[in-house]
Amino acid sequence: MHRPAPKKDINEDELKVSEPEHAAAGLKAVMVSMERGFSEAGPSRTLRSMLRINQRGGFDCPGCAWPESITGARKPAEFCENGAKAIAEEASARTVTPEWFAEHPISVLQDKTEYWLGSQGRITNPMIIHAGETHYRPISWPEAFATIAEHVNATTPDRCVFYTSGRTANETAFMYQLLARSLGTNNLPDCSNMCHESSGTALNPTIGIGKGTVSLEDFEHAEAIFVVGQNPGTNHPRMLSALADARKRGARIVAVNPLPEAGFFGLKDPQSVKGMLGKADPICTDFLQIKVGGDLALFQAFGHLLLKFEQETPGSVVDHEFIAAATDGFEAYRQARSTIDWDATEQATGLTRAEITDVARLLAKSKATIICWALGLTQQPHSVPTLKEIINLLLLQGNFGKPGAGACPVRGHSNVQGDRTMGIWEKPTEKLLAALDAEFGIDSPREHGYDSTEALHAFEKDEIDVFVSMGGNFALANSETEALEAGMQRAKLTVHISTKPNRSHVVHGQTSLILPTLGRTDKDDKHPGGAQFLSVEDSMSVIHSTQGRLTPVSNHLLAEPVIVARMAQAILGDDHAVDWRAMAEDYDVVRDHISRVLPGFEDFNRRVREKNGFVLPNPPRDTRSFATDIGKGRFTVSEFEALQAPEGHLILQTMRSHDQYNTTFYGLDDRYRGIKDGRRVILIHPEDLEAAGFKDRDLVDVISTFRGTERRANRFRLVSYPTAKGCVAAYFPEANALVHRELVARESNTPGFKAMMVRFVEHTEDPGPTLDS
Question: For residue 679, which of 601, 735, 743 has the smallest C-alpha distance?
Fold first, then answer.
């Protein structure tokens, strides 16, 4: 039997702090995985689901997008601790019924944390609340769709926004963007706008594709692997196995990060008794504890040193043949990197010249290098130049289109890459729109829509009437929390297609609908032709099927493709050019459409049924070619930049806890960092703590400064921690309120969650104004 939902919420006064751990996984990870599953879903649902996670013919873990092998056998437990937690959350036998909503008015729910809300269980019925009402109440599905149609048709397409979470499967995403464009809008913000948008913005003009250029098998051949701005021990734990195996082969593994995360140093592989109980396998050979925002300076220094080493020993470092045949702009890059200001570089990175030079030498010796990165690089004002600098290094040594080499942006959401492939993008290409128009006989809008940050601005200016959210928790995922929540509450209609309660349901529009949907683990068999399956794309462009087998907790749940189709029918009418009913009844129909619209998906229905699915074309990886506007890989030149904190301030980055997946909290134990039973903490170097005039565990209010304005977040505890000097770290979304709406990566508009300038004041119960003070 599962345990009932917790009644107690977070009490920050119960915070416990212990020493950080120095290895990831192990027996504890196995025990936590099983305990979370049994407590939420019960033994039967837990064991049945775990046996099918990431297995051929099973379902794709709704956690990270790390791939599975497409050539070899898969492990019996092809999941990690956090994957098990994600499944426990979704397979939960706890239910949130109409009676639950009747017992919990909005006034009570508004004071609950995301941890408490998410722990209550799966939503069983469609629910609605109107302006002036105190409780959500049940509504029938036909009435819900009629309500959506009434509001959408009462306004204009440009005042409707269709947000998407990366959880959404390919077929659903394709139908969702088709609905938006059939209606007449490209307002299709998604979670990638807030995470890896900078990656695509940097990669497309330099290598001609916005995705990574490696396969999982490349990790078996790499001589050097860089893990930059990323914490695989918590966010992509299965990646640690690939890194550990590479280390055993003799590869150099370089971690670059402000925090010394446990997963960098050791893995106690839970796949074997020896791994769980024995000595941890070492992971990284080198660790560069860089200052937040110093990565651009670091990669520019690497470029300078590689060119210097090449000059000293011609032909030993630079791949001149590849550069001449496949790239453009090398001479300008060479000139730009011919000099370096070492004092500025050391100040920007917090590293010594000797530390940087040592790692540059191992990079120079490597004949096959993979550079991996995640949000530590993508959420800076200068994120795009930083990532272009990585591409420069890879081009310099010819690290494309050969075994063991390439660029590897590690996506954090299980199908966020697939959503973009399917057309979820506010800036669609003419090629995509023309193909949609030809296939469906519609007239897609050409004007670009809102990304996530632009949607925040639009909410603030009361320019959004209807907001539809396909999964996700937009209110807590974006910056400027207070302003965003206030804007959402002024919207005429908010619609949340969800599995569990979250904060966005509470800060709802004047009218708000919650539409309960099936999850990855659930059977989807209410169709004329029987059970259906969906597909997803992993971080390495592999398309494969996903099919749940658990009995849904309620007969009132609808599959996401069915919800999209019925919305479309209600809004656009049954005589619309698109046959929405056919797609809802048989997902093969959706895939046939996709096969004719999107390159690389030819014969989709046959290929997705193959044992390992199929891999999408990737010119840099497949043919060492680059589909840029000039038909070549592009070297770029960027100016030196770094984050510089004003006097009396430190640089704040946000991060996940180990018991967290995006805005979902599985529990309150960040055990690798030694933080338990609390989340409102600031990790700060002991010397910075002393210089600020505070002591370990002091209670403070945090004030961020941006362009002369201030933001404030109250009641955080300072925790002495070995982070990089001059830098502090806090959990998101608690610290999101500190991010000014205009603090973004310049080219990609991604919020600057890793670039806040903060100071601390003693906590007061009467802080005064919090915005633009």
Answer: 735
Within 13 Å and on the Cβ side, how many CA atoms surround 674? 16
**Overall pTM surpassing 0.85 (yes/no):** yes
Collapsed DSSP state (helix, strand, coil) of residue 16 = strand
If we measure between CA atoms, which residue out of 344, 378, 64, 397 comes closest to residue 228?
378
Rounded to whole angstroms, the Cα distance separating 263 from 252 reads 15
Angle of the 383-396 helix axis to the 295-312 helix axis, nearest 10: 20
What CA–CA distances, in Å, run from 767 to 627, 703, 763?
54, 11, 8
Burial class (CB in 10 A: 0-12, 13-18, 19+), 465: buried
How do beta strands 266-268 and 24-25 pair? parallel
C-alpha distances in angstroms, 187 versus 190, 342, 473, 598? 10, 45, 17, 20
Computed over its alpha carbons, how large is the radius of gyration of the chain? 25
Helix (H, G, I), strand (E, B) or coil at 427: coil
Residues 533-558: b if buried by 16+ CB within 10 A, e if exposed: bbbbbbbbbbbbbbbbbbebbeebbb
Give CA 7 to chain center in angstroms.
30
664-665 and 660-661 as β-strands: parallel, antiparallel, unpaired? antiparallel
CA 638 to chain centre: 26
Any idea which residue has 């370089």 for tokens? 254
| pLDDT tens string 271-311 | 776 666 778 999 999 999 999 999 999 999 999 999 999 99
User: DSSP labels for 359-417?
Assistant: HHHHHHH-SSEEEEE-HHHHSSTTHHHHHHHHHHHHHHTT-SSSTT-EEEE--SSTTHH
Average pLDDT over residues 175-187: 98
Cα separation, 350 vs 312, in Å, equals: 27
Can you give the pLDDT at residue 229?
97
- Where helices occur in 120-238 by DSSP H, the ranges are 141-153, 170-183, 197-207, 232-235
DSSP 8-class letter at 223: S
Structure tokens at 723: 């982070």
Q: What CA–CA distance (Å, rounded) separates 656 from 690?
A: 26
Q: At 430, which helix (H) or strand (E)?
A: helix 430-440
Which pair of structure tokens corresponds to residue 53? 């996670």
Contacts of 247 (CB under 8 A, 6+ apart): 253, 281, 282, 283, 284, 285
> At 772, phi and psi to the nearest 5?
50, 35
The Cα-based distances of 192 to 110, 227, 668 in angstroms read 27, 20, 26
Host H or E run for residue 470: strand 466-470
Length of the chain: 773
C-alpha atoms less than 13 angstroms from C-alpha of 595 in its C-beta half-sphere:
13
* CA 196 to chain centroid: 7
Q: What is the pLDDT of residues 633-661, one digit of tens each?
A: 999 999 999 999 999 999 999 999 999 98
Task: Report DSSP state, residue 687.
Answer: H
What is the sign, positive or negative, of the torsion defined by CA atoms of 520, 522, 528, 532? positive
List the alpha helices (DSSP H) in 250-319: 273-277, 295-312
Q: Considering Cα of 279, then 284, then 287, then 293, what sign does the dihedral take?
A: negative
Q: What is the DSSP letter of 672?
A: G
Please identify which residue in the block is written with the tokens 């209807």. 466
Judged by DSSP in three states, 558 sits in strand
**Burial of 696: CB neighbours in 10 Å, binned 0-12, 13-18, 19+:** middle
Q: DSSP characters for 405-425?
A: -EEEE--SSTTHHHHHHTT--
| Half-sphere CA count of 377, side-chain side, radius 13 A | 34
